[in-house]
Amino acid sequence: MNYLLEIRAFYDRLEVKPLSASAIALWHALMHTCNKTGWAEEFSVAVTVLSHKSGLSERSVANARNELKTKGFIDFKSRSGNRSAIYKLNRLSANIADKFSDSVSDNLSGSASDSVSGNPSILNKQNKTKQKKDHRRKYDDDSEYMKMAKYLLRKIHEWNPDYEAKNMQKWADDCRKILTIDKRDKKTIVAVIDWATSHHFWQSNILSPEKLRKQFQTLLAQMNSRNGNVVRFPERDRAREQKEISEQARIIAFNRWVAAGHSPEDIKGFHAWLERGADPNELGTAKNH
Gene3D superfamilies given for it (predicted)? Predict the structure, then answer.
């Protein structure tokens, strides 16, 4: 799924199927969550997380998702108990992508096959590429990296039993990178996994060792601050952490801007509101202008 194509197709669809400001904000929050999962076909996320990302109340989230489902933008299945609903984003850009793919394949299929068959150097390069792929690291079930990958998956299953890891070999290799390249301590890794997979926000965002590695510094800082510990990081890591927090805050602010009735395309107005301090009380008056 292509993020930019989906947003473009979303606003094209709005011209024939208008949505409320709340539904628009929720769709953006669901898109962001789906992107975090690596564009999973189906994913689960707590209403509290969607409320946090969209700036909507939990009741408004429930109403907005019903509107999105009724108008064909998403599908979702509620589950019993305290389990989160399972969501599926309908691919709005499918027609655009299919037309583009057919056009490209028609133009290139003949010339590409002729070029490869008549050029031994291209065939040699393809053979070498296959050989390189065959030499990728492979991890046994009893390797420490595979054990760590399985531990993360088991912790995810505690709150999302239906989640499936597509490539456990890649998971194990990413765990190797956390241990050997990033030089993380095993006990610290386990503690961060336990904390993140039980956190209302992070549990739906840490769905692979790759995501764990990317957010590790932020997770460790938040975990220690809430446990009453003070951890000092190098300036470079602190700057990266602040940048990640700033990006999250900007997404939340944008969703509130859209939910208040402003056009998502009014980027200039959004930036002006941010520069004035992003006062939520100002959104009501701005909406009426």
Answer: Winged helix-like DNA-binding domain superfamily/Winged helix DNA-binding domain
H or E element, residue 97 = helix 94-117
With left for phi above 0 and alpha for psi between -120 and 50, is residue 81 left, alpha or beta? left
Residues 225 and 154 in one domain: yes
Write the pLDDT tens digit of every residue in 53-99.
Answer: 889 899 999 999 999 999 999 999 999 888 999 999 998 886 554 55
Is there a domain that residue 213 lies in?
Answer: yes
Looking at the chain, how many residues does it have?
289
CA distance 1 to 202: 23
Residues of the chain with pLDDT under 50: 97, 100, 112, 116, 134, 230-233, 236, 245, 285-289
**Residue 116 in domain:** yes
Report DSSP state, residue 179: I
Q: Domains in the chain: how many in total?
A: 2
Torsion of CA 203, 175, 155, 184, to 10 degrees: -80
Distance CA 199, CA 43 (A): 17
Evaluated on CA atoms 203, 204, 209, 210, the torsion sign reads negative
Give 88's DSSP letter: E
Q: Contact at 8 Å (CB) between 183 and 216?
A: no
Host H or E run for residue 86: strand 86-89
User: Which residues, 6+ apart, have CB-to-CB distance to 172 below 8 Å?
Assistant: 139, 143, 145, 146, 148, 149, 209
Contact in structure between 143 and 137 (CB atoms under 8 Å): no
Same domain, 148 and 130: no
Q: Would residue 161 count as lying in a domain?
A: yes
Cβ neighbors of 38 (< 8 A, separation 6 or more) are 207, 208
Do residues 86 and 42 touch, judged by C-beta distance below 8 A?
A: yes
Range of the domain at 165: 144-231
